[in-house]
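Morning!

As promised:
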Amino acid sequence: MRKIWLVIKREYLTRVRTRGFILSTVGLPLFSVGIFAVTLALATRKTDHTLKISILDNLGGLAPEIVAGLQENLPDGQPLYQVVRTWDRPESAKKVQEELNEQVRQGRLDGFLEVPKDILEGKAATFHSQSLEDFQTHRAISRAVDNAVIARRLGDRGVYVDNLSDVVRGVEVSLVRVTKTGESEEKGEGFLVRLSIVMILYITLLVYGVMTMRSVLEEKSTRIIEILASSVKPSHLLSGKILGVAAVGLTQYLIWALTAALVSGYGAAVGSVFRPGASAPSFHLPASFLVYPLIFFLAGYFLYASLYAALGAMVSSEEELQQVQLPVTMLLVVCVILSPIIMRDPNSPLAVTLTMIPLFSPILMVFRITVQTPPFWQIALSLALCVLTTAGVVQLSAKIYRVGILMYGKRPSLVELLRWLRYT
Amino acid sequence: MEAVVLEQVSKRFDSVVAVDNLSLRVAQGAVFGLLGPNGAGKTTSLRMILHILAPDEGTIQVLGQPASGRTQDLIGYLPEERGLYARMKVREVLVFLAGLKGLSEAEASKRVRQWLERLELAAWAEKKIIDLSKGMQQKAQFIAAVIHRPPLLILDEPFTGLDPLNATLIKDIMLELRAQGSTIILSTHRMEQVEMMCDAICLINHGRSVLAGDLRAIKQSYGKNTLRIEYSGDGDFLDLPHLVEKLNHFGALVEVKLRPGADPQEIVKAAVARGVRLSRFELVEPPLHDIFIEKVSEGHA
């Protein structure tokens, strides 16, 4: 047991200390946090001075409504918008527009709003300014115009409303799904969350499986395996290796999860900017979203890691590795390709069959659970099949590993592999 | 008690018989030479002693116990194919390997420091294996084999790739370990090393023991039938087929294997008659090299 622990420790420490690990672990979240922070800073950048604007109202009578809608204040209490002048149906709209343009160009005015004559029929109003990327300004003005136009249309039909913004405020539709057991239950944040779960499972099984495989080949090609095999039981060596790489993956995910928590804090802030008034997106994941995937994932991890380890033990060079790993990697790719079948109809016979296949269930059953909770017996059967297969594959892989690590030269044929399984 | 006992051990890989009914005994405290041509089954035998492979038939005892995971810790092993984790630091690799042999981390660290000092690698302790020269890597690997003071040390071609200085260093350590009671199994193709270092040998061919026992006794059993001659002049005087069975020219020196019953005096006479000056004329036991070739080619006949 102490020896397994030493193997795990070495595997873990040598991997965690590599530049690649630090780059991928720290770099990725830093990168996404950075992107988020920059977006956030840009989107929420408040002008620190009052914006001077004018309104050219070709419809007539709309300007006061719009001005009423521009009542935001700067942090220091000064108004954000100062309407310098409004023009109500001037005689020469063209001349006024030219003059306003000139003022904007000279910087005496931050911008002007032009309301077309037929705005009530749906023609767009235009905001002229030197910098068009100021999202905040644009949004506030557009909302003010929007509300003014709606109020006017209502007024034309004889409806007068105080506090129009209360009336026109949008309502969100949240999706509530009815399940077999009768209770209704909210399922995550839709398709994206499910798809990202599939992708995370796929990438994890692939990346750490391949890492295990390379680790096996490294010991073989450096020939240190001969010394290791004379000190540790191959099965201990193999399990230490798989657990060590798993610990590396766990560390990486822990760091990412912590960063994700931070990022979603930011995300909520960003969200409130884009959808003022809407509550920040909440991720209330039900337990079935986490518990089953975890069990399936663990079974799948040991299944694929031991398969990959056996592949690593079968070959003697990096080039051969590329060839032999293809079939196993394809199994994982196929899972991702097949996932739409489950998305479309999670209870079709095809979907049920696919989620029973042990090599697929670590990804596909998890996906199916997130789409629609299958009957318990199906989850249980799928899980039992998966765990049993994993136990078997680990045994076979350990046998191949034990023989393979001492074999150099030609890659074994299938017949030879079968013979390896019989060696004592 | 013997350090290693193999009783009628066989090991097959598919149709190939790697080791065939092999029995051998290695006395405790001896330097034992395991010899044989390439592919004779030496590595397979060593791997079975190391419990890396299990025999199909027969039993193996190491220091009085059946070979097992427990006996692995009693053995130090320097394989012929060398290699350590290329990207790990020298000190870390050695502490790790010592840990696998049962040493605590503190004890392992202490001994690694001492050994690196002794083998003049102290300055390289924090360097990666990949940055070491081949000879230095080999010394590091030797440390891995001896760090847990194993009562049984298995060395496969320990001197290849070492300069004479380092080879002497390693040889001295081997002798020192032996003086402390360790048993050493030496597998090598260098017969002169075997002659200088080994007390007993086992020569295997096609997985079978073809010659085994005390080295002196083996050589004596062949008798003094070989002449070592150095001379100046015409070498034709040795053209004596009725006396000479085989000639082996080494440039400055000639080894002459005499026919049974041949009188060395006749050769001196022939030299004098031809006016050849002899600077060395010595009657010796046959070199192990010749015994090796004779025994191995018998097997092929």
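Strands of chain A lie at 51-57, 81-88, 111-115, 126-129, 177-178, 184-185.

Hope this helps with the figure draft.
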